[in-house]
Amino acid sequence: MFWGLKREEASRAIAIVNTNPVFVALLAIPILGEYLSTVQWLALFLVIIGGTLISLKRSIASNIFGFSRYTPVLIGSSVCWGIAHIAAKYALEDLPLPTVFAIQQLGISLVLICVTKKKAWSELRSSMRQTDTCVLMIIGEAILPYIAIFLGLMAINIGPVALVTSLLATRPMFVFLLASILSIKRLRIMDEPMTKGTLTTKMISISMIVVGVTGLTTW
Questions:
Q1: What is the pLDDT averaged over residues 18-27?
Q2: Domain locations in the chain?
Q3: Exposed site from 57, 118, 124, 143, fewest CB < 10 Å?
Q4: CA proximity to 28, closest of 190, 171, 165
Q5: Is the pLDDT of residue 144 over 90?
Q6: pLDDT at residue 103, rounded to an integer
Q7: pLDDT band at 64 (very low <50, low <70, confident <90, very high)
Q8: First-to-last CA distance in the chain?
Q9: What is the pLDDT, as a whole number, of residue 218?
Q10: Three-state SS across the chain?
């Protein structure tokens, strides 16, 4: 997901990642013996169409629409997130919430440490000397993600994982709105395309994904 976010627009990347309920549903049919109703199949195709639309980008050179080279990476992230939600639900049946949260974060930390290049640490120290970067890193990476993950696990522990997944699937809409606001000329904190066609395509695609996921996981 981080790899995809680095190379793709945030609103596109998060929308693709949040198609994970589709893979959960498809895996549940052969593995768990579950079946999908007619409404769920329609919702599934709606998510697929929305994910496909937001993955397409117009080539500047040839003016032809095509998939980004990083789309498979984001789809892989989506599959992993879907499986992770199911695994967390099973783990929470036998382990307390703080323990599952701690193990999850330890696993993430170990993986990131292993794949981080040595020069990244010096780059991090250098960038953290800048006040605005330091504040954004602390709030955006050291505080908010942990609160969000802990609350997500708490929701999975309390209620049905399908309902939690459908609520979490609304994230692309918030990311799209925030990224659009931060990309306006007056702020220019982000640099996402602000053309009428791009914004319309993203809005339609993300709406299809959110509606489709909600229908897929609540019917």
A1: 80
A2: 2-218
A3: 118
A4: 165
A5: yes
A6: 92
A7: low
A8: 28
A9: 65
A10: CHHHHHHCCHHHHHHHHCCHHHHHHHHHHHHHCCCCCHHHHHHHHHHHHHHHHHHEEECCCCCCEEECCCHHHHHHHHHHHHHHHHHHHHHHCCCCHHHHHHHHHHHHHHHHHHHCCHHHHHHHHHHCCCHHHHHHHHHHHHHHHHHHHHHHHHHHHHCCHHHHHHHHCCHHHHHHHHHHHHCCCCCCCCCCCCCHHHHHHHHHHHHHHHHHHHHHHHC
- Tokens 């500047």 -> residue: 60
d(CA 109, CA 30) in angstroms, rounded, equals 33
Q: How is residue 57 written in tokens?
A: 């980008």
Task: Quote the tokens at residue 165.
Answer: 């997944």
Count of residues in the chain: 219
| Alpha-carbon gap, residue 182 to 99, rounded angstroms | 37
Q: Check residue 95 and give its pLDDT.
A: 92
What whole-number distance in Å separates Cα of residue 83 and Cα of residue 95? 18
Cα separation values, 64 from 13, 70, 143, Å:
20, 17, 41
What pLDDT is recorded for position 77? 93
